[in-house]
Amino acid sequence: MCGIVGYIGTKKATPILVDGLLCLEYRGYDSAGIATLEKNEIKVMKDKGRVNNLYNLDGINTLEGTVGIAHTRWATHGKPSKENSHPHTDNSNTFAVVHNGIIENYLDLRTFLSSKGYTFFSQTDTEVIPNLIHYYFYNGSVSVLNDNKEKLLGAVKLAIQDLKGSYAIEVISPLCPNEIIVVRKDSPLVIGKGENENYIASDIPAILKYTKNFYLLDDNEFAVVSTNTISFFDNTLEEHNKTIKNIDWDANAAGKEGFDDYMLKEIFEQPTAIRETIGSRFSLGEKCSFDDIEISKEYLNNVNKIYIVACGTAMHAGLTGKTILENLCQIPTVVDIASEFRYRNPLIDEQTLCIYISQSGETADTIAALKLAKQKGAKTLAISNVIGSSITREADYSIYTHAGPEIAVASTKAYSSQVVLIAILAVYFAEILERCDKKIIERLKEDIIDLPSKVEKILDDTEIIKEFAKKVYTEKDMFFLGRGTDYNVALEGSLKLKEISYIHSEAYAAGELKHGPIALIENDVTVIGIITDSNLVEKSISNIQEVVTRGAKTLIITNQILPNSNFDFIINIPKTNFLISPILSVIPMQLIAYYIAKFKGLDVDKPRNLAKSVTVE
Ligand code: M6R
Q1: CA–CA separation, 585 vs 530, rounded Å?
Q2: Ligand 1 centroid from CA 183, angstroms
Q3: Which tens digits make up the pLDDT trace of 373-382?
Q4: By residue range, what is the domain housing residue 314?
Q5: Element (H, E) at 171
Q6: What's the gap in Å between 150 CA and the centre of ligand 1?
C-alpha cells in the first residue's frame, strides 16, 4: 500500500526521503517519487519501479533542498507509470502533494476543475488535490489573506472539504518554504519530532532511526510542520495542543539482523514475540490482569454474543480465538471477515462485544467494521500490534500484542502473538465469569507459558521442512486438511503458501473432503494434514487416508503418535493444549511457504500484488 515520508530541517532532504521510502518498501508499491523545495521552486523526481531507481534519475544528485515529501505508490487509479506516480503538482507547479488513500469523488472534482481551466496529466484520483488547493488559494475565501502560511492551510482545508474518501496528505509549496502541511482521514500519518528537524511518515519504522518521539495525527486533524515547531489544528483550524508519544521500538528490530529476509527473521522471532505478548499479564496461581483494560463481571455477564472481526491472517487468528472463548467463557462467538461484516447489517447491540484484530491497526475494512459496531451500540475491543494505530484509537478498549514491528508482507509473528493474546483475554474473561473449572484455566496458563520454548524447539531443526519444500516447490496445487483448530491453522498455512509462493492451494475441514473437494485429488497431488487434537486423531487419519488411497503425497504435522505411517513426511511438534496448538503447528507451515518461495527464487518479503497494510477498501 502507498507509503509517505516527509522531512523538514537543516540537512539535505533527498537521502532522508529515499531512505525512508526504502524502509516502507515492505508495504508493497509499484512506483516512487520525491519532491523537494529548491530555490523557490518545486523539483519532482519520480518514476515507476523500485525506490532505488530514483538514484538513476537525471538531476537527483543536484537536489539541495532541506524540505521535501516522498511517496511509494500502489496503483489504484491508473497503471504504474511516471505520470501516475506521486508527488503530483498543480498546473502551475506551485503546490506539490503526496497522498495515501482513495478519493472516491475524483471524477466529479476533475469535471469541476476542468470547467475552471485546469488540465490533468495523470489518471490518478490524487491529481485533483494540488489543483483544488491552487483553486482555493487564489479563489477561495482565504485568497484575501496576507499571510501565505495561513492562506495555504486555509486552502488545504477548503480542498479537503471537497474530498470524499480516505486520505493522508502532505503539501509543500515555495510560497511557504518553511512548512509542510499535513492532514489525514482514515489513513495513518505520524510526525516524528527531532532536534532542529522534523519527520513525517505513514509508518513509524520509516523514521524510527531518527526519533522515538511521535505525534499520531488523528482523523480530520491538520499539522503545520516546520524545522523547530509543529502546530496542530482541528477541522475548523482551531489550534490545539497534542501529547507526544514515546514509541519504544528498537530501530534494529526493524532491520534484517543477518537473516536473508524479514519473513524468516520474523518467523524466528516468534519465541520472543510470544514472551512479549504474555509479558506480565499473568503468572501461575494468580489471576490474569491487563494494564490497559478493566472489564467488570456485571458487563461480561450481560454479553450474550462476541463477534471477532478481522481480515486475512488476523481473521484466522480470530477463528482459533472463537474456539478458546467459547470453551472458556461459554459465550457464543462469531468470526467475520471485516469486508463482509460491514455490509451485512450484522445483528449486534449493546449486549454484543465486538473484538477487532489487526496487526497494523490501519486496515480500512476492519476500521470501518469497528465504527459500524460502535454506531449500533456494541462495545468494541481492538487487538493490534501498533501502539496508537487507528483501530486502537477508535475502540472502547485496546490491547497490544507487543510482537515488535512486522515488516514482511506475509504475517507470521503477528499471527502467533494474536492467538496468544486472545487466549490470555479468554482466560481473563473466564476468571471474571467463573463459568469454567479453575483447573482447566490453570493448565491452559501453564501451556501458554511453555509456548515460547516449544516454538524454539520446532525452530531448532528445520531440515525436514526444507527437504519437503525442495520436493514440492514446482507443484501447481496443494491442499491443507485439518479438523477443529487444526482446520483453522490449515486455512492460515494455505494463505501463507498462496501469498508468497504463488502456488494455488486450498484448505478444507478434513471431514468435508468427501462432499466435493476429493474429486480434485489425483496421483501425486500434495496434501498437508494437521493432527493435534487427541479427540480427533482417528477421524483425521481416516480422512487423510482417503487421499493417500487416491495417490496423494502427504505431509503430516502432528503432536500425536500416529497408529500407522504410510504418510510420506511427518513433522513432529511438541504437545500442547489443543486450544492453542495452532501457535505451534503454524510454524512448520510458515517455513514450508518460505522455503518453497525461496526455491522458486521469489521475493519473499514483497510478494506480487500484495501490500502490508491495506488502507483502502
Ligand atoms: O494489519 P492487519 O492485521 O489488519 O492485516 C490484515 C491482512 O491484510 C493481513 O493479515 C494479510 O492477510 C497478510 N498479508 C497475511 O499474511
Answers
A1: 7
A2: 25
A3: 999 999 999 9
A4: 254-458
A5: strand 167-172
A6: 40
Q: Indicate if 187 and 214 belong to the same structural domain.
A: yes
The predicted-structure confidence for 345-366, as pLDDT tens digits, reads as follows 999 999 999 999 999 999 999 9
16 and 114 co-located in one domain: yes
Q: Cα–Cα distance between 432 and 424 in angstroms, integer?
A: 12
Query: Which grid coordinates are listed for 585?
Result: 503447528
Which residues are marked as active site? 2, 612
Q: Decide: 358 in ligand 1 pocket, CB within 6 A.
A: yes
User: How close is the Cα of 95 to the center of ligand 1, in Å?
Assistant: 35
Tell which residue, 76, 299, 313, has the closest CA to residue 187: 76
Q: Does 261 lie in the same domain as 206?
A: no
Can you tell me the mean pLDDT for 415-431? 97
pLDDT tier at 335, thresholds 50, 70, 90: very high
Residue recorded with cell 491508473: 78
Domain count, the chain: 3
Closest CA to 354 of 297, 304, 388: 304
Of all protein residues, the one whose alpha carbon is nearest to atom 7 of ligand 1 is 312
pLDDT cut 70: percent of the chain above it: 98
Instruction: Tell whether the model's pLDDT for residue 383 goes beyond 90.
Output: yes
The residue-averaged pLDDT of 92-110 equals 93
- Describe the chain by its helix, strand, coil percentages, rounded to 5: 40, 20, 40
Q: b/e map of 37-63 (b: 16 or more CB within 10 Å)? A: bbeeebbbbbbbebbeebeeeeeeeeb
> Is residue 77, in this structure, part of any structural domain at all?
yes
Give 438's contacts (C-beta < 8 A, 6+ positions apart).
none
Residue 155 sits in the same domain as residue 178:
yes
> Which of 227-236, 267-276, 342-351, 602-611 has the highest average model confidence (pLDDT)?
227-236
- Asked if the structure places residue 92 within a domain, the reply is yes
Query: Which is higher by pLDDT, 205 or 370?
Result: 370
Across the chain, what does the average pLDDT equal? 93
Give the domain CATH number at 566: 3.40.50.10490
Is the pLDDT at 462 greater than 90? The verdict is yes
pTM, full prediction: 0.75
Would the pLDDT of 559 be above 80? yes
Beta bridge partners of 165: 103
Report whether pLDDT(465) > 90.
yes
What sign does the dihedral 486-488-492-498 (CA atoms) show? positive
Strand order in the sheet with 477-482: 504-509, 477-482, 526-531, 553-558, 569-572
User: Is residue 442 domain-shared with residue 469, that is, in the same domain?
Assistant: no
Q: Residue 48: name the closest of 123, 156, 128 by CA.
A: 123
Could you identify the atom of ligand 1 that is nearest to the CA of residue 614?
A: 8
Closest CA to 324 of 234, 231, 429: 429
